[in-house]
Amino acid sequence: MAASESAPLTGRRIRVAVIGTGAIARDSHLPALARLAEEGETELVAAVDVDPGSVESFCAVAGGAPRPYTDLDRMLREQSPDLVTICTPPTLHRGQSVAALRAGAWVWCEKPPVPSLADFDAVEAEEGKDGGPYASIVFQHRFGSGTRHVRRLLAERAMGRPLVAHCQTTWYRDTAYYAVPWRGRWQTEGGGPAMGHGIHQMDLLLDLLGPWSEVRAMAGRLVHDVETEDVSTALVRFANGAMATVVNSVLSPDEVSRIRIDCERATVELTHLYGHSNDNWRITPARDVPAADAARWQDFGTDLPSSHLEQLRELVASMYAGERPRSSGAEGRTSLELIAALYKSAFTDATVRAGEIGPGDPFYAAMHGGALGWAPGGGGQVDGGEGAVADEEAAA
Length: 396
Ligand SMILES: NC(=O)c1ccc[n+]([C@@H]2O[C@H](COP(=O)([O-])OP(=O)(O)OC[C@H]3O[C@@H](n4cnc5c(N)ncnc54)[C@H](O)[C@@H]3O)[C@@H](O)[C@H]2O)c1
Description:
This protein has helices at about 25-40, 50-60, 70-80, 95-100, 115-125, 145-155, 175-180, 185-190, 195, 200-210, 290-300, 310-320, 330-350, 360-365, 385-395, and strands spanning about 15-20, 40-50, 65-70, 85, 105-110, 135, 160-170, 210-220, 230-240, 245-250, 250-265, 265-270, 280-285, 350-355. It is of the alpha/beta class. Strands 13-12-11-7-10-9-8-14 form an eight-stranded mixed beta sheet. The protein has a six-stranded parallel beta sheet with strand order 3-2-1-4-5-6, with helices on both faces. Helices cover about 35% and strands about 20% of the residues. The protein has 15 helices and 14 strands. It starts with 13 loop residues before the first strand and ends with a helix. α1 (about 25-40) crosses α12 and α4 (about 95-100) runs parallel beside α5.
């Protein structure tokens, strides 16, 4: 079934509902929505959570104006929101995104988008054809003044061709972190640090460097008693010829998120942990670069840190314009495809090329690909994911 038609947005505020009223909804979605409400762009009309106490306290913190619901379908029927922001655990994202699109709402769904490429394509199939509604993914590191400046310099080839890159998510998670039952399991967490932690840096690397073409990877379970990996490394070649190393770890006491890109005329480096502002970026020109060029590269403009607010602002502008937002469709899918390829390469000991994981490939239906020693229960055949899909839709 295709998405139902949305009401025109001209001359009015965008009516928003938040699904899942836990940590990220409170810490990031609510402040961003409050700011855009002050600016006259949005209006928070409803929130949904299976936990009545959580949704009621969320609505109270939000000023009491949004109506609390424990049933998503009922909320969609009664409120007809223009935009639904999804802040629930990843296994629910597919069913809830589909329900919202079918009700005519645009979707802004937390990362990781969905547990598999099959799930992603199923959500995309429900988008409107012209003018939305569209489903986009929260990848807030792509937004803000630093990324915008460096993306433009790279697109213009101002610093020459990008040649060599490093993409590092080296974080630390202890045994207590993995004692929570849903963590470290394919079914509930969707994957290990590649999927749950490193996805932001890999997504940003792809946003800066463009499409990747091939991956060779390794994954390990070095410390934690988990089903997924706790570390992965990959070599990635890009369509533009650049070559990158990628490390995703939860075993690294000195935590850092880092991207470094060596271009012909300069090295660009981003060093931060969970978010960045202009000060986190450094551009080191090659010795023979004229001072005027180097000075222009250092001008990042007014500091707009990466944030949910910056992404939501662009999404709202896309909604008013009736245009596909950034971080949706093929652009929203690219890091998920890279992660599927990373797992396939690591678990099958093969080079994986962009575009090769399609319907029929076990890594299309599930990130573990049914691989021996990695899939739940030790490994075996993957059934195409249809059973899992039905479960998620019922759960939504
Ligand atoms: N963008 C980021 O930087 C970032 C940071 C942290 C978390 N996240 C993502 O946000 C999502 C949520 O993470 P969190 O840390 O807020 O989790 P959380 O556990 O704090 O909150 C999840 C909420 O969803 C509710 N919920 C569960 N099932 C539901 C259902 N069927 N319908 C409605 N509500 C339901 C829970 O009751 C809970 O209140 C995850 O996908 C996570 O990866 C993103």
